[in-house]
Amino acid sequence: MSKKVMLITGASSGIGRATALSAADKGYKLILTARSEDKLNKLVEEVGRDQALAAPADVTVYKQLKSAIDSGVEHFGGLDVVFANAGTGLSQPGTENGEPEEWDQLIDVNVKGLLWTAKLTLEKLKPRKGHFIITSSVAGRIPLKGSIYGASKWFAYGFGLNLAEEMKEWGGRCTTICPGMVNTPFFDEAKPDKLDAQDVADAVIFATEAPQRSSIREVMLMPTH
Predict the structure, then answer these.
(1) Which of 28, 64, 175, 210 could serve as a FRET partner for 131 with CA atoms 20 to 30 Å apart?
(2) From 28, 62, 149, 157, the catalytic residue
(3) 149 is catalytic
(4) Cα separation, 178 vs 138, whole angstroms
(5) CA gap 4, 42 in Å, rounded
(6) Nearest Cα to 86, choosing from 47, 54, 121, 112?
(7) Beta strands of the chain (E only): which ranges?
(8) pLDDT tens, 165-202?
């Protein structure tokens, strides 16, 4: 069983929640952050208060996120893995027909929130040669007509590749997870024939449990159908 400490952003539902439960089964101590304090508290109760800490924060607010991360690291005494999972989409696709107000929120969460998370955790990961994991998307690896969301995931994908090069200088690892469509609350209608959040959680655990000598830079997974 692992004795490592993992931080998960966007931990209250979907991929983040599934990863928290899987990591808990492996023995990880968990710093769980998201905007919904109620959902985080329920997840902590499910995992156990000795193993998980709710640290509510909005990833787009630097000071909030810093406070959450600092309190979690102080509580558990260190940090080994960061899963930068928080993300959002758009209700109105395309460029010509898109909504600039939505773009602001998308960039704040999918781009700046990712950057804030990395900036605030790298110095804490370094002493333990830690691991930074990013949720990008297949949408960040292929052209999609007019997709602003896809462009934000291109950023996440490219940033992950660059961050891996930066972290290897001190023995750290960085993995970018690129799932296809996942059946999560992200979508208004259920998509039971697509990937499950657990599939992505399994990919995260696969990367973190690899021997330290093995840096899994990228995992791409697609629905069979």
Answers:
(1) 64
(2) 149
(3) yes
(4) 5
(5) 22
(6) 112
(7) 5-9, 29-33, 52-54, 81-84, 131-135, 173-179, 182-183, 195-196, 218-221
(8) 999 999 999 999 999 999 876 555 666 789 999 999 99
